[in-house]
Amino acid sequence: MLHRLKTDFRLSIITLLGVCAVLGVAPFAVFRFIQGQIAVGLFDVGIVIGVLAAVAHGWITGRTGTSGLLLSLLSSICAVIVGRFIGEPGMLWAFPCLITNFFLTTPRLATGINLITITALMVQAQGSVEAIQLWSFFTSAVMVSACAYAFAHRNASQRNMLEHLATIDPLTGVRNRRCMDQELAMSVAAAERTGQPYTLALLDLDHFKRINDQYGHSVGDDVLTTLVNLIQQNTRRTDFLFRYGGEEFVLLLPGTAGPGVKKVMCNLQATIRKHLRVEGQSVTASFGVAELEIGEGVDGWLERADAALYRAKEAGRDRIIYAKGSGEQTESGASQEESLLT
């Protein structure tokens, strides 16, 4: 729970508003009922229930964007209603809503919601609030919204940049191991829920260290980026490629199993042999492939693929080893084409 609050900024804001709703509005609801103001008390109870429902939705589904938008709309509507019945003092309650809207939803949506809220408050306040005070409120509200927009826009850009740095391998541009762990966990959960097949392929360039030693790390980097381009050009957009470490990569194939997997792997092996070259000679790769089994966890799934890759290396490299559930493994042999590193 604490981990989610630390890592999900929007969820933490939504949760904070939920706590404020219970601690701040609920006592007023009780007070209204004691004073016999049943209608106002029910209104306060409705606010609390609506906020708590939005918070619960965010926690249960993880769709904080929807929960944030609901909270933003709810708080803005309540601000307009409070301003309608209390008048000028009630309009001051709009300022916290105008600010928090930019933390609950996107800057563009928050700007639209704020403009509608400010307009509604001004329209209903005409005749009951002096013009000078009304326009003072308008100026202050617009300035607060503009400053909040600038802060939220900057904050969103920085979060996107940090997320990119945390999940993307800077050399190849593919997802890194941290992102892989999350995606594999979601794939296991999806497989248990839907029964959809998933296949994981662990591939490793053969004798990559020799390329770095003989030609330099810049050439080795070019080989890695070329490999990534070849894989991406010969797989689907729905497939996921991760850099596992060094010259090792993980390819996740959702919805693919059996003969379909072998067709993809054989095509990748042939493509790498043909197009991945240094000084005119081919660079090959070894593959360890494992289909996700029913009830299997991420660690076991990855270990089977890793064991298959080890077998491929031990068998002479430039091979595809398919891991079986019983521990049995099948092999696709190496090409007879000349290899740079054999």
Automatic annotation (TrEMBL):
Its EC number is 2.7.7.65. One of its GO terms (molecular function) is diguanylate cyclase activity. Keywords: Membrane, Nucleotidyltransferase, Transferase, Transmembrane, Transmembrane helix. InterPro entries: Diguanylate_Cyclase, GGDEF_dom, Nucleotide_cyclase, Rev_trsase/Diguanyl_cyclase. It comes from the Bacteria. SUPFAM superfamilies: Nucleotide cyclase (SSF55073). The chain crosses the membrane at residues 12-31, 38-60, 66-86, 134-152. Residues 196-325 form the GGDEF domain. The keyword Signal does not apply. This is diguanylate cyclase. It comes from Marinobacter suaedae.
